[in-house]
Structure to design on (834 residues):
């Protein structure tokens, strides 16, 4: 990690030349951008503040914002400090988001993260003693703990379906969830893409089954926005919770909740401020949270422009290309278990694996020391897998370097951390 | 309002020379600082990004951060964007805050604002149908709406005590609240300092009465931290909710909740994430909210250092001095009703008034146009008062200029906005 002086030197200065408008970004990136077009993606990498020798493969935890987003946050903060707070461009924000991830602009709420979004859902519906909430053994605490709390407080029950690893196909996943539904099930809460293995669950199919059974479907969609060419109006589910500070590269602490129509006037707000009971506001009632950090939303608006400039189709193709390259390399490693699915329709931009006889936390420390690589180890549920995420700022060279290090690790082992 | 280009020019550059450590700030401000020591307070003003011709008298809504706070937020954000998030210095933050506003470092929770803090309280206790919550007709929506929602949802009742305007003494205020207590009252929720008139309520006396009656006391303390030389360990109340982005000049969207001891393990978290039910964490359970905007907390830490450098005793004396100068001037105005108390022990750094025959919103627009003055009109409860706040960056000249304009307004009226 750079020390403070070299860090500030590194970051100082050059930012102003970078284009900020959607139009300028789109124009810069108007040609090229095929998944293997290295020159194009090197130019994208240059839009970031990530040090050149850093291999960051943990976007699944937190996405680094490009310079245009950092600039937008700073400019907003300085205007507030100068006593001229610019306010939030709500229509631009909701409209831009709807263009990028689909859905109706009227459905968007902006909590601080997926965790808060899911708490809004769990607290906002009426759950009774004896009701059951069904989830899986691949949920993140952000999607899980709100239900653990609410069921504990109300005398309801939390049931956990076990998902196959690696998953074979969509119907196997849908069935694994559905086996645990009972006549007391009121809510199914599952990930769209699991944080454990990057597996895409069949939300549309689960939505069909839930609607037929009168069960609510809450989706932990922390990962897809900014990673997949998503359409919230067709993905399914009554509630979709996300964290644009992951793949959408918005500032840390930027969340999202998409409410389908009936819930915009039906959900009880969890954080009440003025207007919470003014149903004419629809979902926007839930954006009334008192004075909040509006610079986050200025940053999100800039992040949306960045992705509109790139185009989500190009982004999804690139991040899948890099993940496939990684996964293909992992398959060639001896003694390696890949927890992520082989099926492309279940896969995305994250892959998880474990090397026999190598503790994943030891491996993580080793990769960090050897080549400044940042990874995530899925210690949750005692899985012990290493997870690697690939995003637009990563290169084929990043992937190949890590694969080389993993080959060495298999051959010679890694020191205990 | 400056346009974008002149704004950026205005703010660019000079920031790095300003001292950032508590020690350097304290050393710069080691001598002087009496309430009327103009040279000293001009140097303090130079620590801000407020344009030199701006008269900002609305700190009661949002405090402008000094440059050191803006720098801390930006540096944190850039480290996150470079994939090296620094994390939160929890012990420094809680310890610094305890030095500045009193209380036990273990009691601090950091929501986004007073509104969220009060929602945590209203949702976190067990309120039943038929219970009563007592509040006043001088509460801000941030302290009020959480109770409106929770009482509506649970079939409880919200009662509203009427406070005297202007208030004469502390016992008159305590009695006005207490008259509305019934044997169903479970919670009293009042402001420490009202946003309407800047009147200090007798929290310690209400605390004594509430304890004797087995009633919980929740305090909306949005204003005192950073304005008064406060001690949270003696102020009283079970819960103290605040917004350091007001008088403590922290970044927009920085809140505070102080929990007294039994509630650190007893309060249900409203936003559950990992560890919410680990009682060994005490109040810190409620700081587990998933990935949040940690740059706010870096900014708060810097704001605490700024105030430690100044010293709260000096700050309180100065802001009271300016408010007294303003209030004395207002008393000399004909046809002017002052809603704030004459008694210094009930007063602080805000004063509210109305000029007969002059609409306060027209007056607000007039002051803004004439001298770039920012004020707040208390339209809530149809009061229609203009509120002026005085903080460390204000000068006697600011106050005198506004008084001159008010004299003119009384004499000649102001145009309709």
């Amino acid at each position: 990690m750079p020390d403070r002086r070299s860090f500030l030197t590194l970051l100082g200065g050059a930012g102003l030349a970078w284009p900020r408008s959607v139009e300028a970004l789109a124009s810069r990136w108007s040609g090229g951008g095929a998944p293997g077009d290295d020159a194009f993606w090197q130019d994208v990498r240059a839009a970031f503040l990530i040090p050149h020798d850093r291999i960051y493969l943990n976007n699944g935890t937190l996405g680094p914002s490009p310079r245009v987003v950092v600039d937008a946050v700073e400019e907003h903060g300085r205007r507030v400090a100068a006593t001229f707070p610019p306010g939030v461009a709500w229509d631009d924000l909701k409209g831009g988001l709807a263009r990028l991830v689909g859905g109706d602009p009227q459905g968007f709420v902006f909590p601080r993260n997926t965790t808060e979004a899911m708490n809004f859902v769990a607290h906002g519906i009426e759950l009774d003693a004896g009701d059951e909430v069904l989830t899986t053994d691949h949920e993140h605490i952000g999607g899980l703990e709100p239900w653990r709390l609410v069921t504990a407080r109300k005398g309801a029950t939390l049931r956990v379906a076990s998902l196959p690893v690696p998953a074979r196909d969509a119907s196997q996943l849908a069935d694994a969830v559905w086996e645990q539904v009972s006549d007391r099930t009121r809510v199914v809460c599952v990930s769209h893409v699991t944080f454990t293995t990057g597996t895409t669950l069949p939300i549309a199919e689960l939505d069909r089954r839930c609607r037929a059974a009168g069960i609510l479907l809450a989706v932990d969609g922390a990962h897809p926005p900014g990673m997949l060419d998503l359409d919230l109006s067709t993905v399914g589910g009554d509630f979709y919770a996300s964290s644009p500070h992951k793949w959408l590269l918005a500032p840390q602490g930027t969340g999202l909740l998409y409410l389908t129509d009936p819930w915009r006037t039906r959900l009880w707000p969890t954080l009440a401020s003025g207007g919470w009971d003014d149903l004419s506001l629809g979902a926007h009632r839930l954006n009334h949270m008192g004075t909040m950090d509006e610079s986050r939303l200025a940053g999100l608006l800039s992040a949306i422009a960045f992705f509109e400039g790139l185009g989500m189709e190009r982004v999804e193709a690139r991040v899948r290309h890099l993940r496939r390259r990684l996964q293909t390399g992992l398959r060639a490693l001896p003694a390696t278990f890949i927890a992520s699915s082989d099926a492309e329709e279940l896969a995305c931009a994250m892959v998880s694996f474990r090397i026999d006889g190598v503790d994943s936390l030891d491996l993580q420390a080793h990769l960090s020391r050897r080549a400044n690589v940042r990874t995530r180890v899925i210690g949750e549920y005692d899985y012990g897998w290493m997870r690697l995420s690939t995003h637009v700022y990563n290169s084929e060279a990043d992937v190949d370097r890590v694969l080389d290090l993993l080959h060495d690790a298999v051959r010679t082992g890694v020191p205990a951390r």
